[in-house]
Amino acid sequence: MIKPEIPKDEAERLHALRTLRVLDTSYEERFDRVTRMAKRMFEVQISLVSLVDEDRQWFKSKQGLDATETPRDISFCGHAINQDGLFIIPDASADERFLITLSLPMLQTSVFMPVIL
What we know:
By secondary structure, the protein is an alpha+beta fold. The protein has helices at 10-20, 29-42, 76-80; strands at 47-52, 56-63, 69-71, 87-89, 110-112.
């Protein structure tokens, strides 16, 4: 496993995230509608709206996963926020960045789209 790098704009990114005041809030239908639709449209087992905080990724909305958060240093999204656009992992089992996170076989192929605030 390789820990994700900290983005160059980390302080600004965290400030923008905290300004939204959505961390640790209740689930909201408007986010749940998006994750339900994505799960159905892309025929995937898991769909998330994940917010990457300083030490964790927290799930504002989730379909197909029981966890509410995971440590940032083992997260796929910790890597995704370092990308400018679509982040595709064709086979996580062959990618040394993600070897520790593969206890969930449905995460073999993953696609992420960072949202810029």
